[in-house]
Amino acid sequence: MQRLQAFKYELRPDGQQERQMRRFAGSCRFVFNKALALHKERYERGQKKLGYAGLCKLLTEWRGSMETAWLADAPVHPLQQTLKDLERAYSNFFAKRAAFPRFKKKGQRDSFRYPDAKQIKLDQASSRIFLPKLGWLRLRLSRPVLGSLCNATVSLSSGKWFVSIQTEREVEPPIPQASSAVGIDVGVARFATFSDGSYLEPLASFKKHEARLRRYQRAMSRKTKFSSNWKKSKAKVQRIHTRIGNARRDYLHKATTAISQNHAMVVIEDLQVRNMSKSAKGSAEQPGNNVRAKSGLNKAILDQGWFEFRRQLEYKLAWKGGMLIAVPPHNTSRTCPECGCVSADNRRAQAVFRCVECGREGHADHIGAINILARGHRVAACGEDVSRARPARAKRAASVKQEPAEATPSSHVLVGAP
């Protein structure tokens, strides 16, 4: 079994290397914007869109032109990879997977990629890496690189340079060490509630730094734009954002690692986070309702990192030989797992569940996790499409074969059940 994996490290370049990397990132940004402008111009004229091969021919002309001769100082492969990124962005737009490509700005996601592994050399014993037209760079080798090199991406984040090294290697087909299944209901008050009753408290890293971030942003807004003091204030704001993101990713990695190690099957809700966190402001003609409350909810949803939580669970379970199942989220916290009654009156409060038919009581998130696990069992047992399936019940079962929702042992990172 072949595994692709990336290893990211902080670079420690000298002054000359750092200036070169900024030039290379600027060259890639210029090529991307110039190609995007050309695409727009050809579209307005009704001409056919140039493909990657046509853009590479133009890139050769740009590198040889007197006006843009400085492009020849940058390695050609990262420039070509920039054109590939633009081609991929166009394909995603026409496939309705992403918005239309936007022009890149200086200081925002500056990066460039070396695709040829033959041009990259890694000396792990001396903690250094060789990149074309940069030479040997020192790096903080916090963990060993496993596998053979595929490519390397250099990026700038909050004033620090990083390199992400993608490798491939052959591994044995994974065999799950655990045998239990668990359903997970994600939320705002509780980050993740499990079907066995345990739960994870939210980290809320953005909320912890929100006051300080607001103070620094206010100070930056009072500076003259692009002045030296403005740049210093902007660097402070960027450091806070970096600290927020690092804390969130660290929390999610620890949680998903523990879950993937302790469970062979994990069932979650198929949430459309982008739609759930859309603004309710509306337009001038049709203003929205409860805009302030919806804005606070959107901020809390994005602060939890639900999509990243699902992404990490997916690949970590695959590495462990486990399975991730996503089921529709409708009525998971309004359905009684005992009698199958579905009613909005079952959940009169945010956290309180009480069935109007059989009287079953419990935390609404816990009830939702139990129902999520039950739906996952039906999908795993008979491949059922539960998008329109009614809750399991003796007289109106959603499928012929219904697996019971069993309690599973809790992970060591979980908070005890209430």
UniProtKB/TrEMBL annotation:
The keyword Metal-binding applies. Residues 164-279 form the Probable transposase IS891/IS1136/IS1341 domain. One of its GO terms (biological process) is transposition. Pfam families: Cas12f1-like_TNB, HTH_OrfB_IS605, OrfB_IS605. Residues 393-418 are annotated as: Disordered. Residues 1-48 form the Transposase putative helix-turn-helix domain. InterPro entries: Cas12f1-like_TNB, RNA-guided_DNA_endo/Transpos, Transposase, Transposase_put_HTH. One of its GO terms (molecular function) is DNA binding. Residues 306-372 form the Cas12f1-like TNB domain. Keywords: DNA recombination, DNA-binding, Metal-binding, Transposition, Zinc. In the N-terminal section; belongs to the transposase 2 family. In the C-terminal section; belongs to the transposase 35 family. This is Putative transposase. It comes from Melaminivora alkalimesophila. The lineage of its organism: Bacteria, Pseudomonadati, Pseudomonadota, Betaproteobacteria, Burkholderiales.
